[in-house]
Amino acid sequence: MAAGSQEVQNLFKGLPTQNHGSAWEQLWTTSLTPWDRSGPSPPLADLLSSRPDLFPLPRGGEEGRRRTALVPGCGRGHDVLLLASFGYDAVGLDLAETAIREARANEEAAAADETRYPLAEGVVERGRVTWVAGDFFSDAFLREAGVDSFDIIFDYTFSCALPMSLRPKWAARMSRLLSPAATGRLVILQFPNGKSLSLPGPPWGVNSDMYLALLSRPGEEIPCDDDGNVPGADRIERTADGLRRLELIVPTRTHTIGVAADGTITDRVSVWSH
């Protein structure tokens, strides 16, 4: 367990979900942020640079429209700045106002060091960055950002920060926010992948079957056994608003926290579309 993770779990133990926002702000104001990786996610960078079939790079807009990205629970904004370097107009959203202040400071520091987020090969213009302190489940942040839907949504240490009771709502919201265009992509860096769904958090456990069940039928409760496993996820019929999993990938590199002691990568990356 990462340093500070037990203190985080103790803070959330028995805490009603409506009080989670103030708890996250408390963690940020006390600098207890064991989820921060101090840089962007290697699997996301690798996908964006090596899979043009999944992620055609913004090259001056698509039919006059700039392509957009969202990172909910963005923290210090490392992945937001990465997406901007690939040409996306990127929105970093966090419930904690202190996190957004630190994200802005991170952006200023990056602007003074061009080596941190160099413009990706083939990209002609860095995307705009917008920081919003707000609630993922409310449309208020969309009005503030001036965006209705997103071409890419990147989820890392966000869905795992939500208890199981909120995850059907998370899935419905993801379906709503993801662009219905053929190139719309939800990318999930699954962490802590394989941790039992019945164990305490955050981070609460995730696994591939859970995501498949949730996103196939957004908004619906999913059946779990006593160990937190999801039986028959691959046989669940997808609803009209359900997302389709395009890829389930073992990344070639990831954050240290996603690598077991023997060097095995435990993280998985799943890519979804309408």
From TrEMBL:
Keywords: Methyltransferase, Phosphoprotein, S-adenosyl-L-methionine, Transferase. The keyword Phosphoprotein applies. GO terms for molecular function: S-adenosylmethionine-dependent methyltransferase activity. SUPFAM superfamilies: S-adenosyl-L-methionine-dependent methyltransferases. InterPro entries: SAM-dependent_MTases_sf, TPMT. It holds the Pfam family TPMT. The keyword Isomerase does not apply. It comes from the Eukaryota. GO terms for biological process: methylation. PANTHER family: PTHR32183, THIOL METHYLTRANSFERASE 2-RELATED. This is Related to thiol methyltransferase.
